[in-house]
Amino acid sequence: MIKNVIKAALLCAVMGYTQESMAQSVANYANTQIQQIIKQGKIGSIIKLDGFLRTDFPKIGFTQRVMPGPQFIISDDPEYIRVPEAIALQEDVVPGAVRLYVYNVNGVKEPQKITRKITAVIKNTGKEVMSIRMLKYSSQKPSTNYFEIGKKGLEDYFSSIVQNDVRKVQPGEVIAIDEQLEKNVVGYDELVHGFYEFVVDQPAQISVLQTAPENSGPKAFANIKNIIPHSHGNAGRGLFGVSNYAVASKDTLDTKNGISQLIIADGNDDPWITGTIGADKAYARNAGNYGVLYNTKIKWKSTDGKGLALITWNSRSADNQWCGGMGLTMELFDNKGNKVVRQLPNNALITKAAPEAILVEIYKPDPTKAVQEINFTYSPPGASCLPTPLILVPVDLK
């Protein structure tokens, strides 16, 4: 595309255009080329937009409110559990809904690398029999491919419909939250990734621990006394009161006004959620808002007849060695409320850097409606650097 833009500029110069008119002509030509590439792209796949992607597109103003949601626990401090037998997280919850995000790695390498089990257990700390009812279940096979696990974990969570999964726990009894974690053997540097939502009707204590593969989680819990101190590293760990956000555009976008982008989960315009760690209620921060769901609605209209393409890209690729790739999963709704869960990109594991972008969706203008709405659920993608800009590009679909 760059060669074509140069040709356009030379042609303008030969024809005697002014510098201002030449710049406008080149911009129009480039815009046309970008639109063509977007229109010819496959939904969910990587497209290449030479010379187009940048971080300073105009931001979409948005309102954000906390939605009712479960108590939220994340286990990612330490991410790499270096101690063979230890508890990496322990939090008390009250009766009600709980979301648990397990993101831990077998990091034992001294005196040698060994296989481990990383599992999550729950103890009934109440005085009556406790029911634990699973609502959402996502559990991946341990792997060193963190991007694949992060994408698949969110896909399974969004798609999960759990029915008739109720277990009874006696007062003082400890059971495994996920029986699959009890079966996994975790090699060195392999990530254990679990994303769950469940309801309990008694006070309970939730622990994430590492032990030998032959030990059951509940039995190991009875014998392990050491809880790894928190370091405020990685995304963090702890108990948080915010788990769901409702995000809405402040104004109605108009396609005639050009490109705009929604920036959430950046730690600035959208601060990281805070909570507490452990029994002493130490300060906790989820640096990335990983595991938080953003129920997003953007109003738009088309006074020039164009549609809107939703794209994203890895805007952090040049920052450091950890930001070289990005992959995510989103839950998208059409104007009838029908849901599709889409791994992004769907034709590769990750997108690396500009000029690569992911074509998330194309929204067509409806001439019968003065205002339309884009509706999706976004959650910060595990293993990826943030933010992941959500860019809306007007496209002539005729």
From TrEMBL:
Residues 1-23 form the signal peptide. It comes from the Bacteria. Keywords: Signal. This is Copper amine oxidase N-terminal domain-containing protein. It comes from Sphingobacterium psychroaquaticum. The lineage of its organism: Bacteria, Pseudomonadati, Bacteroidota, Sphingobacteriia, Sphingobacteriales.
